[in-house]
Amino acid sequence: MTAVLEARSLGKKFGRHWALRDCTIDIPAGHVVGLVGPNGAGKTTLLKLACGQLEPTTGDVTVLGGRPGSTPAQLARVGFVAQDTPLYAGLTVAEHLRLGARLNPRWDAALARERIAQVGLVPTQRVGKLSGGQRAQLALTLGLAKRPELLILDEPVASLDPLARREFLQALMEATAEHRLSVLLSSHLVSDLERVCDYLIVLVDSRVRIAGELDRLLASHHRLTGPRRDPDRLPADQHVVSARHTERQSTYVIRTDAPIHDPAWTVTALSLEDLVLAHMDRRPEQPRRDVLEVRR
């Protein structure tokens, strides 16, 4: 499968602090990819490296087969909506569209006008007077009208109320289907990822814990609850993701493609939130039998 982003041993250092280190990742084309992880995992740094705003300290990254931000043509292929939706408060909506047209050689003026009308933005209104949801919709419009092959969004709805989040994500889903975009979306809101994403990457300490198509990941993860049992007594094809024990009971989250026949276990499916938290919640005493990454 063609990758829209490939990173090998990628790292970024600010002073003495590594914001991202030893990150190896493949992001496939043709998906809406959810990137999730705890604060400090390196998500924003990775996205800024991917769009050419930062240069790597170590390792390599390619986007759409080229070095991020290396040429005007490469810049034109990637759209980026930052977490704080940076816009110019003193400019009107229409002035933002004219600025977008001047800066982007593949600018689709008709698409921009249609989206502005669709979401109810007034062209003469200054951006400083818009609500958070309206600013987010304008930022998304600017990203889409650029006609990118890859659209990168860093926590685009983190500060929005539930209604504005729903409207933004609905617009994103419609645009993705219509324009056949590849999308990389970073978010702490797992429910939002579940709504729009079909591919998931969990990033912890700048390393990929798990990556794959969302349906396949959910189908291969299970919660086992039963009498206390040491992990070494589990079948070799049951890879332990997380474990919890009481004096008499064990609860495991495992990953396996094989049927589970042991009658001692109560087997339940995981929600997306369960799966994400299990891979994020690493504790030193937990067994390390898991395979950290799936690539398909």
UniProtKB/TrEMBL annotation:
Residues 5-230 form the ABC transporter domain. The keyword Nucleotide-binding applies. Keywords: ATP-binding, Nucleotide-binding, Transport. It holds the Pfam family ABC_tran. One of its GO terms (molecular function) is ATP hydrolysis activity. It comes from Nonomuraea maritima. The keyword Ligase does not apply. InterPro entries: AAA+_ATPase, ABC_transporter-like_ATP-bd, ABC_Transporter_VariousFunc, P-loop_NTPase. Transmembrane segments: none annotated. This is ABC-2 type transport system ATP-binding protein.
